[in-house]
Amino acid sequence: MNPQSMGIGGGAIFTLYNATTGKVTVINARETVPQNVRRNLLSDCHPHRSLQPGVQWIAVPGELRGYELAHRLHGKLPWRSLFEPSITLARQGFPVPRYLTTLSDGEPVKEGETLRLPVLADTLTTIAQLGADAFYQGPIAKKLVNDIQAAGGNLTAEDLKSYHKAHQMEPLNISLGEYQLFSPPPPSGGVVVSLILNILKGYGFSPDSLSESEKVQTYHRVIEALKFGNGQQFSLQDSAFHNMSKVTRLLTDGFAAEQRARITDQSQPPQYYSLSDSRPDTYGTAHIAVMDINGNGVSVTSSINHLFGSMFVSETTGVILNNQLADFCLDRGEPMQPGEQPPSAMTPVVLTTGDGHSVLLVGASGGSMIISAVTQVVMNKLWFGLDMKQAIEAKRFHVKSSNEVQFEEQFDKTVIRKLEERKHKVVKPELLLPIVQGIFRNQGCIQAVSDSRKMGDSDGY
């Protein structure tokens, strides 16, 4: 249970692999802008401080329509059975983990206490019985709208009823040696991850790239590529509402080579990377990777955006609502439009070899830091010779939109000092860096890893 990070009050992106056909597809179930969104809402965005939470940031949830579509296209179990484990957890309760110590009735919830969500259990039971329509135009919809509007929000019954945005898409696809990387197209972060890895593949990285004599140069190049990736945040816009002709060029080897040629042995000012301003880092989201006995796999990232989303829970349904409209702060100066999906760093990826013998599923939680985390884990596995556990557990760094670099506490201090000599500005991370989940199948052997940074574990059957 990760109610602080994801849930049916948010949205999700699925990247799916069919082992029989070798085909990869994407299901986009991101939220959308309500019809009556406040016109000047984005004036509340600020580059140097966090947003004030509230119902004004709630977008139309898409999560359940995504589940519905995935179940219709790929599911075998009855719809109702999918909800039974969550219903049981919500009703009977679950131990509060260390990272989920928040407020309940004004009192702190302590680690290890049992947290029960009986109202949410009732809501999930109704959805299990009546289907997703119960949420979008049935009894749950009415309760949700009443609660949100009573708190001053603008979401309407028509917004929920008219949500039909969940759809299947063709993934982006680039070549990384013997592997093909498949990632979700805009408004997700797939195009930026693809660009960064395309830049870096030109260096011919290998396990020797992390030797004592090479690792400072290697990490410098990775950081520089991440900075160029940050400069392309415009590419995360909803293609149904924006001209995305530039995105096609971002995926070409030629464009990657142009950016690679601009990487020197020193860090540069933000403008060099097309970084016009900075944004506060965001946290949140949840990710899961699943593979079945036949080798079919899915990499899914789900989110209510910031931790606890809008900080508003519908008392009559138990649903925590998202604050996804805050993601439009990435596009300050461009007004959001009703029905538009907000930009997102969510990047669930699938990598496969041409013969299908090797398949890698990777994704992360961590808001705006997802892109750097997914990039580094893919590099660790494909180029630096690490196994799946080592690739995920290796100490990481994140490049902020302000051009500053955050390193995990245990990262090599000598490397950090030498990178500072190359004019990289290093700052301490405010919170835990992103959490990555991954599965690697090679021939018949499967290695599944859940990031220990959040005390996770893998499971099988």
Automatic annotation (TrEMBL):
Annotated active site: T285
UniProt-recorded Gene Ontology molecular function terms: glutathione hydrolase activity; leukotriene-C(4) hydrolase
Domain of life: Eukaryota
Gene Ontology biological process terms in this record: glutathione catabolic process; inflammatory response; leukotriene D4 biosynthetic process
Transmembrane region(s): none
Positions that bind L-glutamate: R30, S303, I304, N305, D327, G367
A Gene Ontology cellular-component term: plasma membrane
Annotated Pfam families: G_glu_transpept
Family membership: Belongs to the gamma-glutamyltransferase family.
Protein name as annotated: Gamma-glutamyltransferase 5-like
